[in-house]
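Progress note, sequence design subtask.
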């Protein structure tokens, strides 16, 4: 028997599975939201152009004199090669596999959360390794970070934001940089009186749903429990070190299952364009009914549900991503 997937499930049933998986993935997909989406060339490759800025013009035009032609800007084509990731769960014949039912519904939700967490972790790790590293409290190495001497503060944030500005990092369409921090870091900063006086808490429900908790110094702060944390990597090998990512627009590129926003997850997909809004389906919900295993399942007792997706991340401008290693009030817990 053929697998029950998006090619032979009815559009209504498949949409229900997808509507369970994608919204549960959404809260986990934080780090990859601001990458430039690479273009698909229909031969399995994705590419994006990296442009270098032109230098300033400092010579005045002579009267009636045409200046020399401006040299062509430096353009580099960056190729992304998405690879596949996936996971699945087995179910017994107690689950009805031919229709939309509560068991498959809940499993689709859990698999969606796992898919989102997996993608977010992979992108986060690429950003951490490719960003320009910085350290709180004026130290120069992770192993020197100690609590409470080097606890993150408003001063550290000022340094990172102004470093992005000095590198001419682009801001998003709303005029903001993006910052991803751990809840433990937010709890620490909210006890910094200067930070609190400058902080503007988020009131837009849509923003809060996306994990955006507030704004400071032209930065939108996003809170994620999946923000990078390295246990016992600070001073004395007993202090946990956290990461705060300061991200400029177009600092990195992605291909695959990224960039999901609530309005796309909430709308019903079609058989031509999935709920991710992309014709090349970067994530698939795959359901196999009892009996599809042939002789491996002689009594038609087992089926499965799973997800499969593609992903790749490439850094375009390392100076437009700042990775602030720091300690907070939870580093010695």
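Output:
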């Amino acid at each position: 028997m053929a697998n029950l997937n998006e090619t032979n499930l009815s559009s209504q049933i498949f949409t229900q599975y997808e509507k369970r998986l994608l919204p549960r993935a959404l809260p986990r997909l934080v780090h990859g939201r601001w990458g430039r989406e690479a273009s698909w060339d229909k031969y399995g490759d994705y590419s994006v152009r990296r442009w270098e800025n032109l230098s300033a013009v400092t010579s005045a035009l002579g009267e009636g004199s045409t200046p020399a032609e401006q040299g062509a800007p430096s353009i580099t084509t960056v190729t992304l090669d998405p690879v596949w990731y996936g996971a699945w769960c087995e179910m017994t014949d107690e689950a009805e596999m031919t229709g939309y039912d509560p068991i498959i519904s809940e499993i689709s939700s859990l698999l969606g959360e796992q898919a989102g967490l997996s993608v977010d972790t992979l992108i986060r790790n690429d950003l951490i390794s490719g960003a320009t590293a910085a350290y709180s409290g004026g130290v120069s190495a992770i192993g020197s970070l100690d609590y409470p001497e080097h606890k993150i503060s408003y001063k550290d944030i000022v340094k990172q934001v102004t470093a992005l500005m000095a590198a001419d990092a682009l801001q998003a369409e709303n005029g903001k940089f993006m910052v991803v921090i751990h809840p433990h870091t937010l709890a620490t900063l909210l006890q910094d009186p200067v930070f609190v006086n400058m902080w503007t808490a988020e009131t837009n429900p849509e923003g809060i749903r996306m994990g955006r908790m507030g704004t400071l110094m032209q930065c939108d702060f996003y809170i994620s429990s999946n923000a990078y944390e390295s246990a016992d990597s600070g001073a004395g090998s007993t202090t946990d070190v956290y990461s705060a990512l300061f991200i400029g627009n177009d600092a990195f590129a992605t291909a695959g299952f990224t960039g999901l926003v609530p309005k796309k997850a909430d709308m019903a997909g079609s058989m031509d364009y999935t709920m991710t809004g992309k014709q090349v389906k970067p994530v698939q919900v795959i359901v196999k009914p009892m009996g599809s295993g042939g002789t491996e399942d002689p009594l038609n007792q087992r089926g499965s549900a799973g997800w499969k997706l593609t992903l790749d991340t490439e850094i375009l401008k390392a100076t437009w991503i700042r990775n602030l290693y720091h300690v907070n009030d939870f580093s010695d817990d």
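Residues 144 and 332 are 14 Å apart (CA to CA). Work on this subtask will continue into the next period as scheduled.
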